[in-house]
Specification:
Chain A has 343 residues and is an alpha/beta fold. Chain A contains 13 helices and five strands.
């Protein structure tokens, strides 16, 4: 059973949110907002799962329940206008970047009102005008695009960073090495965020990766790397924000590996044969990122049972409405099937 | 409201699961997230957790049964609800299959059974054809209807004659009305090429072109005749299967008739009736009675022509020309004679118009003036037959069954016919009747 | 009119456009001081500097991937691959990312990139450095594939390719680099998707591209003296293919021969023939449609084997004669 060794992390575990937020310059409202966003992601993923179980989703989905702290800690730490390249388990990151759940749900149901007019689905969801260059169906697909986007940012001399999020599986793709090498030689403004949730599809990361943690691989390309506890939302926020500042100052790329865990199977066909129920239960109970943050906020008296239930109620309503919106939305016109192949 | 316990879909292509074990029974309290059902697909066994807390009720699918996914398999009663609150179970009970629409229309607008004549019924039975497949021409299905139906079916089934031809050749052939079966292909495996079609078509076109040119003016001399004649006759000779039948006719009574006609003509200062004109009349009469000799073959069908236009082959210095007596069957011999004289004169002057040489349905070729006993003539396309007339010769012949010999004027007639259109017997029949009419001219008046 | 080589025409197109448009840059291996493996980018580093003449490690996957990423955010990268054979290392970003981004994202992304690559055999570079892989590239919707055969076409088409908002594969032929041709001074473009009749004829249409255009023209010249009139149709663009030009020509001549260096099986000649067969030109065919293509063999090293592996002038001549004389 996989249980991480906390002493290996570069970060210190957050125990006092008030202290931490003060040092990070985060307001209490922002803390509650972070909590709220994490709950939103969780509820959204659960609803997506439900829609799938009801047979309304054509295809499959890759759900990120359990990984909310990485999504929210990262999403809040970067600036609007920064580029985002995401992986196929990207609903959380998308929501944390401010996406509209109506358009997300509509896209999953293949409707014309979805982010991609129903052409992309869950795996290819994007908001190009907001500099979100999409979830990618190819593992590591975003790593190569990131090199190009970073190159463009450098040539245009803007202060954007390129946040490229990928999983532990992608770290073994060839493109990982080509991308990091290129970023290393050209000092590209890329934040490589490896969301390590312990498993590729079914393969445990330790079994398939020669030498972890992955920050050592970044070091091989001369890129500073960090290995942090991804379920500690404020730790994620801290490290990502510092990295973003470093990159914006033109000092080059940064690599952060955030350890986390996913509750649902890889996709909807996953029967969880490669891990035990005990393991899943452990993570859901002991290390759940939302529960941990909720407890810390309660201790700091920033939320209570009442506000928690109010938040959950509001978010449930918002997400229920997104389902209604999606269901009532029209399908794309079949006659338009050939649209947008060429510009 | 009781909450439906929906069987979740777990796989992309999944439609059912098999329930292996209900861990709880109706009436038990279940908690949200607690495993309640054990199920199996062809891949794997799983546990299904309760979606909500409450009392389990109304189990619709039992152990070892297949349950559909995304549908309710049971219900969960909430606080204060009883079995009365359960919706009438709709899932799991197959809805009554509505009557197929066809049944209704069959009842409503059913066609009444067709009655058939006894003979038609016999044929249908023998050939195992259901009566309602055959369209009836009247109120009763007749044998004719059945035969027409069978012919139609055969036409549809019978394979077309296959000719290898390139697409370009086919388009050209269709465009120009040329039957591919008539063309010898120059391509590999005797494939018909476009050039082959063009060659044939150009021949025809040049003739047609010359003819249409003349329509524009009143008298235009024909040119390049020799070449054209050669081409046409070659095609006819090569592509039409000729049969030849010869008969010798005793012309004494016809000659006597003609002599008497000429006496009248002289009295009225009219020209003497030539034998050719006389022959044209009798031939026209005979053609009316034997339509297959007055026909053209077009593609796959024989056109039996209503009008009889007899062409008379006329030899000129530079070649053969065939002026046509239109509606020869309707004209008295005197008029035929005048026309013939006129046409011959025009021909000699090279002044024939297009109308005067087109439209012929049968040709008579007379080489008698050269003393030719008999000969075979090549059919003038697109006609189906030609009559070659030899010279009138006084010969000793047996005139009765006592073997009495007399000298009579004998005329040799050789009929050339297109065997695709005219069988031997049909040709013989025509020739016999023609001979008969020439030997007994009164028959023509009948 | 001045005469320059095919290589110089490509060089000039890039230089002239990079002067006009700041967002255009060249990315590839050894394009800087070395001047490019085939000398195409000679002198460009000095004029444009290392930012815009961006020399890379040997990382074809990342070169094309980076080009795709940069193109998505407003740049106009030209990726140079040293040999067409190496595009196989970069098929994923080309076919999964660049070709599909616009469609998958509901029309909201554009990827205006060019991937230039020299292909073809005849230099003794053997199996892994001599392939003609355009049939693979043109199979993917979302990509355009261009293959010029002359210096004039190369310059005009490259300019169009750089300005095209779609990913364009620009296929060069190694043996054409040194071939001279008339190229006017000044800016001109040739539209992508437009074929050209390089030699008009009446008896047979030869549809071809790249170096086979040169060979077909030589054959056409020779046969014209014998009264066999060959129409040579240079496609210039393989995707989108100028079907109308092909159909019009075949309607005129009634005979079709497709000639390409790419391997026959799965080669684009089948595409042309299927297109003609399904068009109104079918009714005008007076002979079976035929193709002459590279043999199904990796390109050999030995020079005679190498020549035997792809169509040569004698092969084209023999095939044209056979078709015109109704041998098939």
């Amino acid at each position: 059973m996989t249980i991480w060794k906390k002493e290996e992390f570069d970060n210190f575990e957050t125990t006092d949110v008030l202290e931490k937020s003060a040092s990070l310059g985060l307001s209490h409202e922002q803390l509650v907002e972070m909590y709220r966003t994490m709950v939103k992601i969780r509820l959204f993923e659960e609803m997506a799962d439900k829609q799938y179980a009801l047979g309304k989703v054509h295809g499959t989905m890759h759900l990120s329940a359990g990984q909310e702290a990485v999504a929210v800690g990262t999403g809040f730490a970067v600036q609007k206008g920064d580029y985002l390249l995401n992986h196929h388990r990207g609903h959380g990151h998308f929501i944390a970047s401010g996406a509209d759940v109506n358009k997300m749900m509509a896209e999953f149901l293949g409707k014309d009102t979805g982010y991609c007019h129903g052409r992309g689905g869950s795996m290819h969801i994007a908001d190009v005008t907001a500099n979100n260059l999409g979830a990618n169906g190819i593992v590591g697909g975003g790593l190569q695009l990131a090199a190009g986007v970073g190159l463009a940012v450098q040539m245009k001399k803007t202060d954007q960073i390129v946040l490229t999020i990928f999983g532990d599986g992608a770290a073994n793709e060839g493109i990982f090495h080509e991308s990091l090498n290129m970023a290393g030689i050209w000092n590209l403004p890329i934040l490589y965020l490896c969301e390590n949730n312990q498993y590729g599809m079914s393969a445990n990361v330790a079994v398939v990766s020669a030498k972890t943690p992955f920050k050592d691989r970044a070091a091989a390309y001369g890129i500073p790397g960090y290995y942090i506890e991804g379920n500690d939302v404020l730790a994620v926020y801290e490290y990502v924000r510092n990295a973003a500042e470093y990159i914006r100052a033109g000092k080059g790329p940064v690599f952060i590996e955030a350890q986390t865990y996913r509750y649902f199977g890889h996709s909807k066909s996953d029967r969880n044969l490669y891990r035990t129920k005990e393991e899943i239960d452990y993570w859901k109970s002991v290390e759940d990122p939302i529960n941990r943050f909720e407890k810390l906020l309660q201790t700091a008296k920033l939320i209570d049972a009442e506000s928690i239930s109010k938040i959950k109620e509001e978010l449930t309503k918002e997400i229920d409405e997104s389902v209604t919106f999606a269901e009532n939305s029209p399908e794309p016109n079949v006659k338009d099937v050939m649209e947008w192949v060429y510009a | 409201m009781p909450i439906p316990f929906i069987m979740p879909k777990m796989d992309m292509d999944q439609e059912v699961v098999t329930i292996t074990l209900w861990l709880k029974k109706e009436g038990d309290r279940i908690e949200k997230g607690e495993p309640v059902i054990e199920v199996e697909t062809d891949k794997i066994a799983s546990e299904i957790e309760a979606p909500e807390s409450g009392i389990l009720a109304n189990i619709l699918y039992h152990e070892n049964e297949e349950a559909p996914v995304t549908k309710a398999v049971a219900y969960i009663l909430q606080e204060g609800e009883t079995a009365q609150d359960l919706p009438i179970p709709t899932s799991g009970i197959k809805p009554a299959i509505p009557e197929p629409a066809q049944a209704h229309t069959e009842d409503a607008g059913a066609k009444p059974a067709v009655s058939a004549t006894p003979l038609a019924e016999k044929v249908l039975l023998k050939l195992n054809i259901p009566a309602n497949q055959v369209p009836a021409s009247g109120s009763k299905l007749t044998r004719k209807d059945v035969e027409a139906y069978i012919e139609k079916m055969q036409d549809q089934v019978a394979p077309r004659v296959h000719v290898a031809a390139t697409p370009a050749a086919r388009s050209l052939a269709e465009e120009r009305g040329i039957a591919l079966e008539d063309v010898i292909g120059s391509g590999p495996r005797q494939r018909v090429q476009a050039a082959d079609i063009l060659q044939i078509s150009n021949q025809q076109a040049s003739e047609h072109m010359v003819a249409t040119k003349e329509l524009m003016s009143t008298s235009v001399p024909m040119v390049g005749k020799r070449k054209r004649i050669a081409e046409r006759l070659t095609t006819s000779y090569q592509s039409v299967p000729h049969i030849f039948l010869t008969v010798e006719v005793d012309m004494s009574r016809s000659e006597a008739a003609r002599k008497r006609m000429n006496e009248v003509a002289e009295k009225n200062s009219q020209p003497a009736v030539s034998m050719t004109a006389y022959l044209v009349k009798v031939v026209a009469w005979a053609l009316k009675r034997h339509p297959y000799l007055n026909a053209v073959l077009e593609g796959n069908s024989i056109q039996l022509l209503q009008n009889v236009h007899v062409g008379v082959a006329t030899a000129l210095e530079d070649g053969l020309i065939v002026p046509v007596i239109h509606d020869a069957d309707l004209l008295p011999i005197q008029l035929i004679n005048e026309k013939l004289r006129y046409l011959t004169r025009q021909a000699r002057n090279g002044a024939l118009t297009a109308n005067e040489v087109t439209g012929g349905t049968f040709t008579i070729s007379n080489l008698g003036m050269f003393g030719i006993k008999s000969f075979t003539a090549i059919i003038n396309p697109p006609q189906s037959a030609i009559l070659a007339v030899g010279g009138l010769m006084r010969k000793p012949v047996v005139i009765d069954d006592r073997d009495t010999i007399a000298v009579r004027p004998m005329l040799s007639l050789t009929l050339g016919a297109d065997h695709r259109v005219v069988d031997g017997a049909v040709a013989a029949s025509f020739l016999a009747e023609l001979a008969n009419a020439l030997e007994t001219p009164e028959l023509v008046l009948y | 009119m001045p005469e320059i080589t095919y290589r110089e025409a490509i060089h000039d197109a890039m230089v002239e456009e990079m002067r006009r448009d700041e967002s255009v840059f060249l990315i590839g291996e050894d394009i800087g001081s070395y001047g490019g493996a085939f000398g195409v980018s000679a002198g460009m580093l000095a004029e444009f500097g290392p930012q815009r003449i961006r020399e890379t490690p040997i990382s074809e996957l990342a070169i094309v991937g980076a080009a795709a990423g940069a193109a998505m955010v407003g740049m106009k990268p030209i990726a140079e691959l040293m040999f067409m054979d190496f595009v196989l290392l970069a098929l994923e970003p080309l076919m999964n990312q660049a070709a599909k981004a616009r469609y998958m994202f509901g029309g909201k992304a554009t990827v205006p990139m060019v991937v230039r690559m020299p292909g073809g055999s005849g230099t003794g570079a053997a199996a892994q450095h001599s392939q003609s892989l355009e049939s693979l590239l043109m199979h993917i919707p979302g990509i355009k594939v261009v293959a010029p055969s002359t210096a004039y076409d190369a310059k005009g088409l490259l300019l169009s390719a750089i300005r095209d908002p779609n990913p364009v594969c620009f296929v060069e032929h190694k043996l054409l680099y040194k071939v001279k041709g008339e190229v006017p001074e000044g800016e001109y473009t040739i539209p992508i998707g437009l074929a050209e009749i390089k030699h008009p004829g009446e008896d047979i249409t030869v549809v071809t591209s790249g170096i086979m255009v040169q060979k077909s023209l030589a054959v056409a010249q020779k046969l014209s003296q014998e009264g066999i009139s060959v129409e040579v149709l240079d496609l210039r663009t393989l995707r989108p293919m100028d079907n109308q030009a092909i159909i019009t020509s075949v309607k005129k001549t009634g005979r079709l021969l497709v000639v390409h260096e790419a391997v026959q099986t799965g080669g684009w000649a089948g595409e042309v023939i299927a297109t003609v067969s399904s068009s109104e030109a079918f009714d005008y065919l007076d002979a079976p449609m035929r193709r002459l293509a590279g043999k199904d063999v990796p390109i050999p090293y030995n020079r005679f084997l190498e020549a035997a592996a792809v169509p040569q002038e004698v092969d084209i001549e023999a095939e044209v004669r056979a078709i015109v004389s109704n041998k098939y």
